Give the backbone structure.
Amino acid sequence: MILNIFRRAARPRKALPLLLIFALIITQTACSGKADEGPRYSKDGFYLDTFCTVTIYAMQDQPMDQAKAEAAIDGAFELCSEYEGLLSRTREGSDIWNVNHSDGVPVEVSPITIAALQKALEYCTFSGGRFDVTIGRVTDLWDFHELDEPKLPDPDDVEAAVRTVDYHNVVIKDNTVALRPVEEEDGSEVYPYIDLGGMAKGFIADAMTKYLADNGVTGAVVDLGGNIAILGFKDGTSSDFTVGIKEPFSETGEMADTIEASNASIVTSGVYERYFEIDGVRYHHILDGKTGYPADRELLSATVIGPEGRSADCDALATIAMLSGELKAAELIKRKPAYTLIVIREDGKVVKY
């Protein structure tokens, strides 16, 4: 089986059924399989603004019990929903929403939120601020969902939003999070907004795979719209999975490369995921906090492969690669010897580091 790494593309609405069909093809393939590979159980749903699939291939108890497998999948999706309810920037009442709208007053949050923020801040420092969780006010200016009449944000609004991007203004103390204000040119103060979109899916994928392992699963794939978390082996003991990296902008699912992997995390970030075009110019969703506009780094996608349970790290590193460009990303990945970087250049060439 080949699992195609992709995220929900924000194209005109007529393209949505194609993605839905493709998600169903993945699920149906996982459910049928070859007779000698044994049964597998798979479910999909819509979470985190994307199509998500959990497939179980093996459990400690053999033969697999369908009820136990389905219960494990249901529990993993419930955990996904719980984490989304804490980490979403746009869901009113989430921990992140509450922090963003507290005007600097410390907000008591879940230990889960603290852990996610600490992981994100680790990569803010690692990237020298290229990756920055306080990009939320910039993100709010761009709409990659309603694409019938896409619009560019006002340049003055972008400039003002960029001034709020500085991860040093996130203050974590015990079980609370607060934001320091940024002084405007007229002397007034504005607070930054946190956006964990650069690594939240990976963080949640790690939690889901741990939940599956704790519930007797020894071989599974969690696919959160392109964030692939592989638990164990396909047969539970030794057989690798084949994961395909999608050809950017392909409408028919061609693969640019394939990876044989087990006990692994694989995350792709790309300019083809969510974008719109105005006057022949493509504007994608990977926003540079230093400019307020889509990053222009001459890459179509970046895939990071790491150990099992490190999807959050892979997610952040893939985002950093797209924000930094190939040469800087290659330098950074050398500091993470457990990880591999695969980039696809604008000319379609695939390069591995």
Residues 2-87+198-352 form a domain with the T-fold fold (CATH 3.10.520.10).
